[in-house]
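Something for you to look into today, if you have time. What I am after is a single protein written out in full by you. I want to see for myself how the chain folds. Could you add the entry underneath, on a fresh line?
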Amino acid sequence: MSKEKVEQLDHRSYSVDESGRRLSVTGRRVSVVDDVFGEIVEGGPNYRNVGWMGTVALMMKTQIGLGVLSIPAVLDTLGMIPGVICLLAIAVITTWSDYMVGIFKLRHRSVYGIDDAGQLMFGRVGRETLGVAFILYWIFVAGAGMLGTSIGLNAVSTHGACTAIFVAVAAIIGFGLSSIQTLGKITWLAWLGLTCILTAIFTVTIAVGIQDRPAAAPPEGVFVSDYKLTNNPSFTQAISACSSLVFAYAGTPAFFSIISEMRDPRHYTRSLIICQSGVTITYTVIGVVVYYYCGSFVASPALGSAGVLIKKICYGFALPGLLVTTTLVIHLPAKYIFVRLLRGTHHLSENTFRHWATWLGCTGGIAIIAYVIASAIPVFGGLVSLVGALLGTLMSFQPMGCMWLYDNWSTFKAERTTKLTLMVCWAVFVVVSGTFLMIGGTYGSIVGIMDSYKASGGSAAWSCADNSNSV
């Protein structure tokens, strides 16, 4: 502790290390005192134990999950060149947004979630609005994760049981794993899930390249891919496709929780650069290669593009990844509610009865609500698209532009340099573009829900039907 400064506070010695953590020194015991979690005592959960490599895994797993499987279909809608341009544009904007999460957290150490940022910028209204949006968004994503897992189980087992049972199994496993108390102990799951989902998507990518035709193509004649370099979609089709790309990058609100549990938040940017580079390269390669070989016969999700056998193999690899996605997206809103309920009390960081009752109540409650919504709503797939367009965009674009303006507006008014002027323009652009994508994507999703319901009437509540047939 050679570079620490020591202060006296409440008759206790505190030292501040180079990473910004306060250390409480009581006799011979040294414990971390965090601005969010309070004093992290020996024997209790260690909320500040995620290394920078673990941060990479958690970040990439919140990004690479359900969204990557729809990217080839997005390129089919937009055309390969416009699709890749839109993908890279959204990658740049969301990477800047993710970077702002780290900067804002380092400047405002008491911020835990996006609602705390909303409180600083817009008061109570901002806090409650973003807090509710955060919970709803992850609940619907958790429901989508459960359905994705049920698709995988159906594919692997050739519909070995009622789909409603598979969804319930996914919910139970998700609840059990998400109840692990800290992200530091979940990082190994993130590595496992990331490895499995990447193996699955690269397997289908290789398979479509070596097969003579995709599964959905006509079996007769010589197959020639009908991929398009450019396309002419309607506004609704184009904006819905862009919303799918935003959803593929919409792990941004989770990054508040992740940086809050890092051992050294100063390494956040390093982790972010590795994450976003890996994610963008993966999305581009998977999207372009699969679409190039499949053309308009690409399946969505893409794991079904190479036939029944490859679909079974790919979903076998993907299942752990889908379960880890479900685990993380249950854990995140549950941890948010848990911290908000117990913040400022010793129950947050000590293994008391109230601590465990609240924690299991949060993870169990989120899992049950996500399961009920996923199983009971006839147009759940369209509803996830709607929530992604409305809430995913809302929490990945506009708040981050506002966060930069909140921290730098007074400096800009005083100096008005060229750099600050350009940054103001950029922050405003992020807010405006996010609002446009949110409104347009919401409209496109509503139109899609209505069209889907007119065509099929949606799925039945708690259906036993095989939901892997179409993929």
About this structure: Residues 156 and 312 are 5 Å apart (CA to CA).
